[in-house]
Structures are given as structure tokens and as C-alpha cells.
Amino acid sequence: MGTLPNKLPQGVYYGGAWHRSSSQQIPVYSPSTGQEVAKVDSAGEEELEAAVKAATAGQKIWAKTIPLERSRVMREAASKIKEHKEELARLDALDSGNSLRGMLFDVDIAVTLMEFFAGLATEIKGETVPVGAGKVNYVVREPVGVVARIVPFNHPLMFACAKLAPPIMAGNSVIIKPSEETPLSSLKVAELIGGLFPPGVLNVLNGGPDLGAGLSTHPGIASVSVVGSAATGRAVMRQAADTLKHVSLELGGKNALVMFPDADVEKAVQSAVKGMNLPWTAGQSCGSTSRVFVHESLYDPVVDQLAAAFDAVKPGDPLSPSTEMGCLSTRGQYDKVRGYIEIAQNEGARMVAGGDVPEELSHGFFVRPTVFADVTPDMRIAQEEVFGPVLSVLKWSDYDSLIEAVNGVDYGLTASVWTRDISQAMRAVDDICAGYVWVNNSSDHFLGTPYGGMKQSGIGREECLGEMLSYTEQKNVNITFEA
């Protein structure tokens, strides 16, 4: 099933150098085989303190670097990532279980976002405010300081690279904490591009929940950002409260795709399948369209088509270029998904595709893409985020009841609306509580548009100018001239 492409650096990375940790090492397993593929150093309190100290010193130097020089360095970093595309994608496929083709796409996205934020170098602008004769008033933006970015297991390389770019371009230093389950590509990123920045500007610390808590509570860290579950986001907010950190959260979703009676059924079904991100992350996606609301006039044929489409997606070796879908990334996630499949059956949902584990892949965390029909809004599978290859299909007939069901969850990240009637589309867009809405499309992100959610799907917006500006503070300056 594959081995490490090249030997990884040893230790944790901070202050422009590698350091061995005195803490216990973390074993890294391949979820597709169950075999241990590496051991990585885990950062303890000593390493955290040293990293924050180095990041603080490096940030002071970087903040004085002119924007165009920051841009040049970030573009060089993006070029380095692109140059090592195959190796980085293989590392992600190896320790996350995502398909190689999906992880190659992740590298492309990472490079694109790094280049995008590099291009925004001169957009951290101030303003003047008229306040009367004999006075000048202006506003400038300054970096917040040291930023901690905690990234999850589903897009290890892409999130590490995309999330370091905005705060660094704003003049901050960054400490990246990858998931302890999938740290390999982040280590490689530190090796490839860490030396391009002044020492302390880019730091990578491996570790588990204790390290995450340490980053969230450390008084020397000004801002903490998390991509993860709602439970993780709530924990980080509590931990960050005592030091009143800036907090940015991109959390989970229980996202709806709604088919109206006049929807193009073939395209809508294709979009529902696409929106689950099966070939990309085996459905481990916060933005996945995991609830499909189908008008009663279309229900039976749509269920049949969704079942056939899911049955056609075959899981396999993540490192094979021909694999359509990999496996789940962790034992915990595998057990969770299998548990929700059992819960759905016990609650009366009708499984029309998938559900089982392919016998030839029983050594890994593989689950076939699964579709449940006859799901009702009160079922747990319709309320709670599964974060796996499980799709729920719900029948609707009354518009007001539909909107109540779509909005009747804790989340509000994405939604997809399918209709040929623009008036109906706009009415639904207005009524659905979600931060990112597609009409006759799903899943696609568009560069520069703000991505983020409402309710327990998070705080803040990413992939846009606003993300970079969120890592700055506004300073107002008022000057009175002598008479």
C-alpha cells in the first residue's frame, strides 16, 4: 500500500531550526493498512514556550518587512510546494487515507491560495477620517502578533499551507499544529519553506489535545484559529477566553441540497454526489451536502439514481492513482461512521446503497458510500454531523416545512438549491440559514469569496481578503497641528 516517499526531518520546527522533543513520540499509522509508518516528536510545554518566544522575536522582524518583499517570499514558498507536489500528496494519502488524486488536487489548492494571498500584499490599507480644521486623523492596520492555527486531518497539506498564508502576509508569525493523526506533510512543509522566512515566522509543532489547549491559553499568542468540529471550536473558545484572544473557527456542517419540482434531476443528482466529496476525502468534509431534500414528485427516481451513483464509487488503495475513493482517516472516525449507519437503521431509515465494509479492504478503515432513504428530520442521521460517506435523503412537499427542516439543525455552513425558477431560487436563498449557498451547483469554492458558516458552523470568513484583514488590528491616529 505504500511507504514514506523520503525520510522525514526529526523533531519539531521553531525558530528556523529543528529541535528534538523530550516528550513522548507520537506513532503515525496508515489508516488504509493499520501499519505504523512513522514516529514524530510531540511538543511539550518546553517546546511550546520556546516556539512562542521564537515566534515573538521573528514577528517583530517580519512586521517591518515591506509588503512586496513578503509577497516575494510567499510566492517562492508556493513555488517550492508546487515543485514537491507528488511527494506531498503521497504523504497525505499515506497518513490520511484520502485518495492520491484528491491530495494532488489539495496541493494545487494550497499553491493557489498562497499565491492569492501573496497578491494581496498591498491591500492592508488604512483610511483617513475628516475630523475638522487643524487636525489629521488616519487609521492604519498592524499585525496582531503570534497566530496559532490548528488544522484537522481531512486536508492536512492544503490547510497547513492555506492557513499560514493570510496571517503571515499580514505581518504575523504563525505556529501550525497539524492533527496528531496526519502530521507528515506539515513536517515536510516546514522543511521545504521554513527557511525562506526570518527565523520564528513559520513554526510547526506536533501534538495532541494538550498542545492545542496550550496554544489556546498561552498569553504570548494573540490569535488562535481552528478548522475542526464544533466541539473542538467550543473548547478552544473556552480556553482562549482568559487571555481574550482573537478566535476564528471554521467548523462542521449538516448541509442541505434542495431539489424543487422543476430541478434538472440528472444534474442535481450528479451535484449531490459531487457535493459529498467522496473521491476527495471519503465524505470527511465539513461542506458536504449530506442531506438531500427531494420534492415528493421526484423522490423515487432520485433515490434510485443516488443509490446507483453511490454504488458505482469503489473504495481502494489511497496511494493508487486509479483509486476513486480512499478510506476514513482515523479509527475514531471509522467507528463513528459505522455507529451512525447502525443508528440510522435502528431509527427506521432505509439503506439503499453501501453500508458494509469491502472484505478485501477489511484491514483498513474503509466504508462503502452509503445512502439512506425515508429519513425524517428528527432522526439523528439528519441532525448530527457524520463526517463520512453517508447521505440522507428526505422527502418534502410543503415549502414552509422544508425550510423549517433545512434550518432545524445546529449548523449553517453551506446549502445547495436546485430549480429553474430564479424567483424560487432567490426566495430559498433568503430563507436558508447558511454562509455559503450554491444555486444549481455544489461544492465549488471561488477564489476571493468569503467561506464560512453561521450558528455552530463557525466564526469568521476564510479564503478572501477579509481573512487576511482579520489578523490585523486597527490603530487610529489623531494629529493636531499647532496654531
UniProtKB/TrEMBL annotation:
<protein>
    <submittedName>
        <fullName>Aldehyde dehydrogenase</fullName>
    </submittedName>
</protein>
<feature type="active site">
    <location>
        <position position="250"/>
    </location>
</feature>
<dbReference type="InterPro" id="IPR029510">
    <property type="entry name" value="Ald_DH_CS_GLU"/>
</dbReference>
<dbReference type="Pfam" id="PF00171">
    <property type="entry name" value="Aldedh"/>
</dbReference>
<dbReference type="GO" id="GO:0016620">
    <property type="term" value="F:oxidoreductase activity, acting on the aldehyde or oxo group of donors, NAD or NADP as acceptor"/>
</dbReference>
<dbReference type="InterPro" id="IPR016163">
    <property type="entry name" value="Ald_DH_C"/>
</dbReference>
<dbReference type="InterPro" id="IPR016161">
    <property type="entry name" value="Ald_DH/histidinol_DH"/>
</dbReference>
<dbReference type="InterPro" id="IPR015590">
    <property type="entry name" value="Aldehyde_DH_dom"/>
</dbReference>
<keyword id="KW-0560">Oxidoreductase</keyword>
<dbReference type="InterPro" id="IPR016162">
    <property type="entry name" value="Ald_DH_N"/>
</dbReference>
<comment type="similarity">
    <text>Belongs to the aldehyde dehydrogenase family.</text>
</comment>
<feature type="domain" description="Aldehyde dehydrogenase">
    <location>
        <begin position="18"/>
        <end position="477"/>
    </location>
</feature>
